[in-house]
């Protein structure tokens, strides 16, 4: 098995050990964000039923936001001196989210799946905070705050669609 190359020595005030721990958390966040992006885009393509117009448009706004989110996460990983994961195999290994169903579900099941995905990604981002705070990594803390805000607000909006 090939040995993973060590991260280069950088001097930004965060230890190598802390940078590696932060990158591990950011890599999971990146994988989950990309997985949620792909599921949301799938649902945008495949939604049907009486709510088609509104869900099709909402899913497009959501997948566009997720697509725009992956780059800052990956670039933060690079700023910390590590390679960002970027393959489906890596994402599948890192992500705690299930893949999109092979057969498109009904519209409200799509909404439920996406709600659960946004809640899970918010939890993943939140779990990284103690490590980031310990290392005084303010740029990553700022990124996490932004991501949590988006995921919690999106989950709220999706939950609202599921209420009777």
UniProtKB/TrEMBL annotation:
Provide an example Pfam family for this protein. Answer: Ferritin
What InterPro entries does the database record attribute to this sequence? DPS_DNA-bd, DPS_DNA-bd_CS, Ferritin-like, Ferritin-like_SF, Ferritin_DPS_dom
Can you tell which superkingdom this protein's organism belongs to?
A: Bacteria
Boundaries of every Ferritin/DPS domain copy: 24-164
SUPFAM superfamilies, per this entry? Answer: Ferritin-like
Q: Which family does it belong to?
A: Belongs to the Dps family.
Q: By what name is this protein known?
A: DNA starvation/stationary phase protection protein
The species this protein was found in: Pelomonas cellulosilytica
């Amino acid at each position: 098995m090939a040995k993973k190359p060590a991260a280069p020595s950088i001097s930004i005030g965060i230890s190598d050990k802390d940078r590696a721990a932060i990158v591990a958390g950011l890599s999971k966040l990146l994988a989950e964000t990309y997985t949620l992006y792909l599921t949301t885009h799938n649902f945008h393509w495949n939604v049907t039923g009486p709510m088609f117009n509104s869900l099709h448009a909402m899913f497009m706004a959501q997948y566009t936001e997720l697509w725009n989110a992956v780059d800052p996460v990956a670039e933060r990983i690079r700023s910390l001196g590590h390679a960002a994961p970027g393959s489906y195999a890596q994402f599948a290994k890192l992500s705690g989210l299930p893949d999109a169903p092979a057969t498109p579900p009904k519209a409200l099941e799509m909404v439920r799946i996406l709600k659960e995905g946004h809640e899970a990604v918010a939890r993943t981002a939140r779990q990284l905070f103690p490590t980031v705070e310990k290392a005084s990594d303010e740029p990553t803390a700022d990124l996490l705050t932004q991501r949590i805000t988006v995921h919690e607000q999106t989950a709220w909006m999706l939950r609202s669609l599921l209420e009777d």
